[in-house]
């Protein structure tokens, strides 16, 4: 290349950079979000399913036209089956009648158009084993008279249509293909000439380059600025290729492998590749296939500056027509892992990605790069049902595992989760940009209609309907300059040509000098790499020991924090104990309250008893008084009657008797009154004596309760204030000290120490690279800082996570305390109200007692008035007066009678004297005359007896009066005896009362 050309080339490369930078600027603008297209393809029942007589449970249109798939999993029939069927909605549904052509037109066709326009596109087939994924994606890839058969799948159709379209557009273009396989988590280049699909040829296998995935997302996100700023500095020292690196470049590559690929390095590397290719372009020749990626990055991503992943050592083959593409496809398929299983005679045991890269002329010298990724995933399978054993079981396990991760990625994307587990499997890493990235994506879920696979069909449909919600942000691909593209291709061709020539001319293992040198330099670089790895291991182990020290310190810190937490726990326990104490006090108070209630009940019962006794007393009093009065009346009347009957009133001295009676009555009544009064007074006295005692006891108790309450309330308030103080202290501590114990400084200190150590050692050994190493150390420092910050935050998070339930419990305890507080207040108020109520009740009962006492008093007063009533009783007095009058009359009558009797006696005496005289006169005469005279007297006697009472003896004139007086005395005696007996009796009654 001439100097002029070189200049032009350099100018162009700087133009490329500008152009790429401009494009980068454009790419970062987020495009509109687009849901990925999801189609379901249901094949007809295969022979195996028909043989098993497994019924059709999936309901799909025969060809297409619906967006819904329903599956009857219940075993119902008719309308019930339709109603209970599970339904899934997707974008397109194809039935058994849908042809390969239709699937291409409807699903892959629109993406193909976008691919031509410059978008990166992905078509994925997903489903259970033997449902037709490979049939859909590849189908019959052979050409028949230059034509594809009806069974040709998406890849052959894309290849054919691509060249047809490009030819029609008459635009400059370059098309490359790559074909990779992911088998048991191992990536393999299916187009690598050293790969024969099996490991039997170990000799060839050792020349087969191992594919490695790098991704640049982390580096892009974090280091883009520093990467841009350091780009110009490092350009001059750039290596030619990853296989031809200086120690520094090798170190960089090592970092690429261990970490991710930062933009700076990627761009440096791009630039280096460009430069080296510019320099070596003079050696270029032509070849049919091109290894464009011997150590060069490859990407399934839309562009190198976005979240792409890079597959190191992947070969891309330049194709100029569809036939070449189909040949590559067939070559790759031969190497693909296929095995016969119970479910499928040609079951694909791996995931494959056939990538077509199109460099299409955009304007002038610029070519737009776009990629079409055609992904045929291995089928999920139920190992029990597929009967996979040994190798097949291992494959199925790996397939299921990667599909499971794919499912998790889909779920995380749909749920817009913060972390998408792309890195959990190589499959998801490869598909990273097609799911939620910058690619236009279509997913075809293939299913079987048979009942026997309904479980897996449901799972596939579940994923498909979920995946429908994944949103991508499609972006147009990057640009590349035409001459660089051409030079790249030419250089690769030349290299391969020289290899071919060497192979032709010699026997054994033949390769070009360059290739041999490259391999040697590879070997050297690997050796260096191993050495550096060893050194790095040492450095890392020293770092590790430092980190271990840090860890120890962190442990100590954690320990101290633990002890602090312990002390907090103790505080909390103390608070708990206080709470328990309060609870006990509460219990005591409630016990006391119960006692008080019981006491109140006893008091009420006593009051009731008193009331009852009062009533009984009243009744007894009434009965007694009424009985007394009655008996008094009866005695009076009976005595009067007796007197009447016995003519006691004949006695002259009845007045004193009546007076005596009156006196006795009055005395009796007075005694009664006195007794009643005494009784009442006694009762009232007792009551009044007992009442203050009772009230005093109640008041005392109430006072005690009040004191206890005040004490309890005070202690509660104190405890609560203690708790709140502790709370504030804890808060303050958490705010000021918790996890702020200079951890950051400590970590900074360690980082600085680490940094210093690294710096010291590095400066000792590599002084020439001091500047570079400083940068590196700076970067390390940042990384360490970042890692340590992450670690610290992780520790903090963990600690906080551990602390969280305790904090919640602790906060809850405050709620409980508040609750307890409010309960206390409520209880206090309730108690106060109850006490007031008790007081009121006592007041009311004392009022009512006072009332009843006053009523009793009134009654007693009334009974006091009974004497005066008796005195004022006119009827009684009238009767008494009448009695006295009657007595006076009787007395007069008796006196008259006595007088008349005396006169009669006198008469009788006269008669007697007369008779005596007569007898004396007749004594001297004859006995006959005497007898006459006796007869005469006897005749006279009846008339005498009619006038005077019969006289027993006539010894003296006072015999009748004597008889009467003796009678009177006997009556008096009887009366007085009766009276005495009555008195005695009444006294007895009073006594008993
Ligand atoms: N829609 C279809 N029309 C006709 N034949 C089909 C259809 N789908 C699948 N088949 C046939 O079913 C068989 C299994 O299909 P295929 O190998 O594509 O399944 P697969 O899903 O890729 O299975 P695996 O996951 O085990 O690789 C093949 O013989 C294929 O021709």
UniProtKB/TrEMBL annotation:
Q: Which UniProt keywords apply?
A: ATP-binding, Coiled coil, Cytoplasm, Cytoskeleton, Microtubule, Motor protein, Nucleotide-binding
Any one biological process term the GO annotation gives: initial mitotic spindle pole body separation
Q: Which InterPro entries match?
A: KIF11-like, KIF11-like_kin_motor_dom, Kinesin_motor_CS, Kinesin_motor_dom, Kinesin_motor_dom_sf, P-loop_NTPase
Please indicate if the UniProt record lists Nucleotide-binding as a keyword: yes
Residues bound to ATP are: 127-134
User: Which CDD domains does the UniProt entry name for this protein?
Assistant: KISc_BimC_Eg5 (cd01364)
Q: Which family does it belong to?
A: Belongs to the TRAFAC class myosin-kinesin ATPase superfamily. Kinesin family. KIN-5/BimC subfamily.
Q: What is this protein called?
A: Kinesin-like protein
Species source reads: Saccharomyces arboricola (strain H-6 / AS 2.3317 / CBS 10644) (Yeast)
């Amino acid at each position: 290349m001439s100097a002029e050309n070189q200049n032009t080339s350099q100018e162009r490369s700087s133009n490329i950079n500008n152009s790429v930078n401009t494009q980068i600027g454009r790419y970062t603008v987020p495009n509109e979000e687009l849901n990925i297209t999801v189609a379901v393809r249901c094949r007809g029942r295969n022979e195996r399913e028909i043989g098993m007589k497994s019924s059709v449970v999936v309901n799909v249109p025969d060809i297409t036209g619906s967006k819904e798939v329903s599956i009857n999993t219940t075993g119902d029939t008719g309308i019930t089956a339709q109603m209970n069927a599970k339904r899934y909605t997707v974008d397109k549904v194809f039935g058994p009648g849908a042809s390969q052509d239709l699937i291409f037109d409807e699903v892959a066709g629109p993406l193909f158009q976008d691919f031509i326009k410059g978008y990166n596109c992905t078509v994925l087939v997903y489903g259970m084993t033997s449902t037709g994924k490979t049939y859909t994606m590849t189908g019959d890839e052979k050409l028949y008279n230059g034509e594809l058969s009806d069974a040709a799948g998406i890849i052959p159709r894309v290849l054919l249509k691509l060249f047809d379209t490009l030819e029609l557009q008459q635009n400059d273009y370059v098309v490359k293909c790559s074909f990779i396989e992911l088998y048991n988590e191992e990536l393999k280049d299916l187009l690598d000439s050293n790969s024969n699909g099996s490991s039997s040829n170990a000799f060839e296998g050792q020349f087969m380059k191992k594919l490695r995935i790098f991704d640049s997302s982390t580096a892009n996100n974090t280091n883009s600025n520093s990467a841009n700023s350091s780009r110009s500095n490092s350009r001059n020292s750039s290596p030619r290729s990853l296989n031809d690196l200086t120690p520094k470049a090798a170190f960089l590559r090592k970092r690429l492998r261990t970490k991710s690929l930062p933009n700076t390095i990627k761009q440096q590397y791009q630039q280096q590749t460009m430069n080296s290719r510019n320099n070596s372009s003079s050696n270029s020749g032509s070849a049919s296939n091109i290894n464009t990626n011997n150590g060069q990055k490859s990407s399934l991503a839309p562009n190198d500056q976005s979240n792409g992943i890079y597959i190191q050592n992947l070969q891309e083959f330049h194709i100029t027509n569809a036939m070449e593409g189909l040949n590559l496809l067939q070559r790759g398929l031969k190497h693909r892992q296929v095995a016969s299983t119970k479910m499928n005679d040609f079951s694909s045991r791996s995931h494959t990605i056939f990538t077509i890269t199109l460099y299409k002329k955009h304007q002038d010298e610029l070519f737009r790069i776009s990629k079409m990724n055609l992904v045929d995933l291995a089928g999920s399978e139920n190992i029990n049902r597929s009967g996979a054993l040994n190798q097949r079981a291992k494959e199925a396990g790996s397939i299921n595992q990667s599909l499971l991760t794919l499912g998790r990625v889909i779920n995380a994307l749909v749920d817009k989760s913060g972390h998408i587990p792309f890195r959990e499997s190589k499959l998801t890493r490869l598909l990273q940009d097609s799911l939620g990235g910058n690619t236009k994506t279509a997913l075809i879920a293939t299913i079987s209609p048979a009942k026997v696979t309904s479980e897996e069909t449901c799972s596939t449909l579940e994923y498909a309907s979920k995946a429908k919600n994944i949103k991508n942000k499609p972006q147009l691909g990057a640009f590349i300059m035409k001459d660089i593209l051409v030079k790249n291709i030419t250089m690769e061709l030349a290299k391969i040509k020289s290899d071919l020539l060497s192979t032709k001319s010699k026997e054994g293992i033949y390769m070009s000098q360059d290739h041999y040198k490259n391999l040697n330099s590879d070997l050297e670089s690997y050796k260096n790499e191993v050495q550096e790895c060893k050194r790095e291991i040492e450095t890392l182990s020293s770092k590790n020991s430092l980190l271990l020290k840090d860890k120890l310190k962190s442990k100590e810190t954690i320990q101290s924090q633990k002890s602090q937490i312990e002390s907090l726990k103790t505080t909390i326990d103390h608070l708990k104990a206080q709470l328990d104490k309060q609870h006990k006090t509460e219990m005591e108070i409630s016990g006391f309250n119960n006692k008080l209630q019981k006491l109140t009940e006893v008091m009420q019962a006593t009051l009731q008893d008193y009331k009852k006794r009062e009533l009984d007393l009243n009744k007894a009093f009434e009965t007694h008084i009424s009985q007394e009065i009655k008996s008094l009346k009866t005695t009076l009347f009976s005595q009067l009657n007796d007197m009447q009957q016995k003519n006691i009133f004949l006695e002259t001295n009845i007045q004193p008797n009546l007076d005596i009676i009156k006196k006795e009555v009055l005395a009796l009544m007075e005694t009664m009154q006195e007794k009643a009064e005494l009784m009442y007074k006694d009762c009232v006295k007792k009551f009044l004596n007992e009442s203050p005692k009772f009230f005093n006891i109640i008041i005392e108790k109430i006072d005690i309760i009040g004191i206890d309450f005040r004490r309890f309330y005070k202690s509660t308030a104190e405890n609560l204030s203690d708790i709140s103080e502790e709370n504030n202290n804890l808060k303050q501590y958490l705010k000021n000290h918790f996890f702020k114990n200079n951890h950051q400084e400590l970590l900074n200190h360690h980082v600085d120490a680490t940094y210093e150590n690294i710096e010291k050692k590095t400066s000792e050994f590599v002084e020439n690279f001091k500047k570079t190493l400083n940068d590196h150390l700076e970067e390390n420092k940042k990384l360490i800082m970042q890692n340590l910050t992450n670690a610290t935050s992780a520790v903090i998070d963990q600690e906080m996570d551990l602390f969280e339930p305790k904090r919640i419990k602790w906060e809850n305890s405050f709620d409980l305390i508040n609750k307890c507080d409010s309960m206390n207040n409520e209880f206090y108020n309730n108690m106060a109200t109850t006490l007031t109520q008790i007081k009121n009740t006592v007041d009311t009962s004392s009022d009512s007692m006072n009332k009843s006492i006053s009523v009793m008093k009134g009654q007693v007063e009334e009974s006091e008035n009974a004497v005066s009533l008796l005195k004022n009783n006119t009827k009684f007095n009238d009767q008494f007066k009448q009695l006295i009058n009657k007595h006076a009359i009787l007395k007069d009558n008796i006196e008259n009678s006595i007088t008349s009797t005396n006169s009669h006696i006198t008469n009788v005496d006269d008669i007697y004297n007369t008779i005596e005289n007569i007898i004396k006169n007749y004594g001297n005469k004859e006995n006959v005359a005497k007898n006459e005279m006796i007869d005469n007297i006897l005749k006279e006697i009846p008339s005498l007896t009619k006038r005077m009472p019969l006289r027993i003896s006539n010894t003296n004139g006072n015999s009748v009066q004597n008889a009467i007086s003796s009678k009177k005395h006997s009556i008096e005696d009887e009366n007085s005896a009766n009276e005495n007996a009555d008195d005695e009796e009444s006294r007895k009654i009073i006594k008993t009362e």
